[in-house]
Design brief:
The complex is a heterodimer of chains A (about 375) and B (about 400). Chain A has about 375 residues and is α+β, with helices and mostly antiparallel strands. Chain A has 6 helices and 23 strands. In chain A, strands 1-6-7-8-5-2-3-4-14-13-12-9 form a 12-stranded antiparallel β-sheet. Chain A has a 6-stranded antiparallel β-sheet with strand order 10-11-22-21-20-15. In chain A, strands 18-17-16-19 form a 4-stranded antiparallel β-sheet. The termini of chain B are far apart. Classes of the chains: A alpha+beta (about 375), B alpha+beta (about 400). Strand 23 of chain A pairs antiparallel with strand 16 of chain B. Chain A: GO terms for molecular function: 3'-5' exonuclease activity; DNA binding; DNA-directed DNA polymerase activity.
């Protein structure tokens, strides 16, 4: 029975928006499937890994009967992707099998009952809700997401703290070695609320956000967060845990302070990094009045040295860092000039944007 | 060009090893069917000083037979059989608990005795080794007899040895004349002594492959040797088919692996009864911690650290799951292993009861080879509020408020 006829892209685009979270291997076979549901003219796509659920809809209304089915997300996406872009795809469903036809191609796929598909339902009233332009949220995320921990045993670091307070929304991430903080002012009066969003949710959200002025609605629920933008809705569980108090690690009395051109420093570090130790990635910064040297050596005793002029007249300092931690912040912060503030060789360094309290990056040194 | 002299590889297999060690301790049980297995079957001392041994018929539980004496095997009781089933076959058999410390002790003794002959030894487990005799001047039969004598003098136990051109034949051969056997096999013996054997006697042809072969009408090694390679390839993978064809001819070029670095160390336990993740949480948690400690002890004793910590869970429906986590730096520390293992368990569904729990550390490196790494400072989240951020480097490693918070969970 014919259930749907559509241009390839009308199916593929929304499908790819939801299938990023589908796990390759899962104990529950149906979770490798995507739920496709046609209601009225709208064809909806839904995928979940039980932690996150993404739904979206085809951009235009499509004719045909209503239906619900689930089939392998990966195979369905791979088939559509392999079709010529302009092809017209028809879907037929008979006895639990899904047949996809396009031109002279024909694919017969298994389905699993749509009623067995586990759905996350958003529950509880929102403790805080606000709206941002997608591009603003995207910019905020880009400034902090690189500092999230990866598979850390301190599970609550494998994510990002989202905090609301009055007119401020704050995002904080840390892997215990460095911490990035970015905030934005809203025209709103928000309650004090905070959640930890899982790493996977953040990476997926970042991929799906557009560089546009279109809004995204964010609702903090009891143990979930819901993001709604365009026809896409992401419901994510939040990480149950206590995020460390980031205020405690913001250094207040670092007195070796200078401004530096971001791109100049980034390029110098990128060159030096070629000879940084492959495993430990150490870099030594030697700060003296008027100049800063950047030194890298690798396990073969090869050496790189860069020298930059800086407007600085304070005391001398030699301090080591993981060079990746420096490259991360320099790559992701959209500012021409950065302010660097150091204490001593054992204390954290603070990176800020001059005259802008909305961004902070704190990085602990490495004893090399 | 002359052909190189054929290798002389011996396989030495201790006879009914665990059971024989127990008989050394309890000589009065000699000649009786004895079954090793279970946990609480230790003999009790009677008031008159005699020992009272548990009988298999009294066993209640779900243990499996670890091993049995030849007398018990004659009654049909073999390793890995459920003990309740074994009790039906041999209700009067004596039941003893396994004492792995003792078995490891005797294992070290017999291996040390063999090492006096040659260092060319491949460890194949607690009770068997391969020995490369190629470079020794003596006749095979003579040297094998001397090794058997040395093992008996060192341990009081008997073993079976086969000397053959390769590991495959030596392994098969040591079974042919058990117990206390001495077998010599050459290529010329293959048709008469190897081909009549069932294919399952070949190390590497398991029950599944045997079944598939039987379906093809192939029951013996000889029949396997006469099976066309195309037929084997059609039913087995290409490399397995090629291997089957080779072993049927007694061909095996594998060298002895004289020194092997362990790849992982693990400990696991099957619970007396299936434990519920929530209701039996204290018991599970204690068992979990104990496993981590034992793995940490193993690592420390053998001088290794490992990068990856994994867990293995078997549910009451026998489904088995594993999960692992790679740490930023290698460890042999029980607390760190426990913490990482907890993290792994977080990633598995815990709706069903658990039958088995295991902890494994892999990605091993000798502890001494791990150079002191540059020390990355930790953000001082644990400082008192308002205090001046202090030197996060001074604390050394990863101990901080963050970890304590994780440990509290």
């Amino acid at each position: 029975m014919l259930i749907l006829q559509a241009e390839r892209d009308a199916l593929l685009k929304p499908l790819l928006a939801v299938t990023g979270i589908v796990e390759r291997r899962h104990t529950l076979p149906i979770l490798s499937n995507v739920l496709i549901e046609k209601k009225g003219g709208e064809v909806g796509f839904l995928a979940t890994d039980l932690e996150i659920q993404i739904t979206t809809a085809s951009p235009e209304a499509l004719p045909g009967e209503d239906f619900r089915l689930t089939t392998s997300a990966k195979k369905f996406a791979d088939i559509l992707r392999a079709m010529p872009a302009a092809s017209t795809v028809t879907l037929e469903k008979d006895d639990g099998r899904l047949t996809l036809k396009a031109g002279k191609s024909r694919f017969n796929l298994q389905t699993l009952p749509a009623d067995d598909f586990p759905l996350l339902s958003a529950n509880g009233a929102a403790t805080a809700a606000f709206r941002l332009a997608q591009k603003d949220l995207k910019r905020l995320l880009s400034q902090v997401q690189y500092a999230m921990a990866v598979q850390d045993i301190r599970y609550y670091l494998n994510g990002l703290l989202l905090q609301t307070d009055g007119d401020t929304v704050r995002l904080v991430s840390t892997d215990g070695h460095r911490l990035a903080l970015a905030s934005a002012k809203l025209d709103a009066a928000l309650p004090r609320a905070e959640v930890i969003l899982p790493r996977k949710t953040i990476l997926e959200l970042y991929k799906l956000l557009a560089d546009s002025d279109d809004g995204i609605d964010i609702e903090l629920l009891a143990s979930q967060v819901r993001f709604s933008f365009g026809s896409t809705v992401i419901i994510s569980k939040v990480v149950d845990g206590k995020f460390p108090d980031f205020n405690r690690v913001i250094p207040l009395d670092n007195d070796k302070i200078f401004l530096i051109d971001r791109v100049t420093l980034l390029q110098a570090l990128q060159r030096a990094a070629i000879l940084a130790n492959e495993k430990f990635r150490g870099v030594r910064l030697v700060v003296a009045p008027g100049r800063m040297s950047i030194l890298c050596t690798n396990s073969e005793q090869e050496e790189a040295e860069e020298e930059l002029e800086i407007a600085y007249q304070g005391g001398a300092l030699e301090i080591g860092f993981n060079i990746n931690y420096l490259l991360d912040v320099l790559t992701n912060v959209p500012a021409e000039t950065l302010q660097l503030a150091f204490g001593d060789a054992n204390r954290s360094a603070l990176f800020t944007i001059p005259d802008n309290p909305d961004f902070k990056y704190i990085v602990m040194p490495m004893r090399i | 060009m002359s052909r190189p002299a054929p290798r002389r590889i011996a396989h030495l297999d201790m006879d009914a090893f665990y059971a024989s060690v127990e008989l050394l301790r309890y000589p009065e049980l000699r000649g009786l069917p004895v079954v090793i297995g279970g946990r609480d079957a230790a003999p009790r001392q009677l008031p008159d000083g005699r020992l009272r041994f548990a009988r298999l018929r009294d066993y209640v539980g779900r243990g499996v037979v670890t091993t049995s004496t030849y007398e018990a095997r004659a009654l049909g009781v073999f390793s890995a059989m459920g003990m309740m089933k074994a009790a039906q076959l041999a209700p009067d058999a004596i039941l003893l608990p396994a004492d792995f410390d003792a078995y490891r002790h005797y294992s070290r003794l017999f291996k040390a005795a063999v090492a006096a002959f040659t260092p060319r030894i491949q460890d194949r487990g607690i009770d068997e080794i391969y020995i490369d005799l190629s470079d020794l001047p003596d006749e095979s039969a003579d040297i094998a007899a001397r090794i058997k004598r040395a093992v008996r003098e060192a341990t009081g136990l008997s073993c079976s040895i086969c000397v053959a051109p390769n590991k495959l034949l030596a392994k098969i051969g040591s079974e042919l004349d058990k117990p206390d056997g001495l077998t010599l096999l050459t290529e010329a013996d293959i048709p008469l002594r190897i081909w009549p054997l069932p294919v399952g006697k070949v190390n590497g042809i398991g029950p599944k492959a045997s079944e598939k072969l039987a379906a093809l009408g192939v029951h013996t090694v000889g029949e396997l040797a006469r099976t066309a390679p195309e037929v084997l390839q059609a039913h087995f993978g290409r490399s397995y088919a090629a291997w089957l064809a080779e072993v049927a001819q007694g061909i095996d070029e594998r060298p002895l692996v004289v020194h092997s670095e362990p790849k992982s160390m693990s400990r696991e336990t099957t619970f007396e009864r299936d434990l519920h993740p929530r209701l039996d949480r204290p018991a599970l948690s204690a068992a979990f911690t104990a496993l981590c400690r034992r793995v940490a002890d193993d690592l420390a004793r053998k001088g290794y650290v490992g990068h990856t910590v994994g867990v293995k869970l078997r549910y009451d429906d026998f489904r088995t799951l594993t999960r692992d986590l790679t740490l930023p730096s290698p460890t042999a520390d029980a607390t760190e292993i426990r913490r990482a293992a907890t993290e792994c368990v977080r990633r598995v569904p815990l709706q069903r009861r658990l039958r088995l729990l295991g902890v494994r550390v892999s990605g091993l490196a000798p502890a001494a080879s791990v150079a002191p790494a540059p020390l990355q400072g930790e953000l001082p989240f644990d400082d008192a509020p308002g205090a001046r951020p202090s030197n996060g480097l001074g604390q050394g490693g990863r101990s901080g408020a963050l970890d304590e918070a994780a440990a509290r969970r």
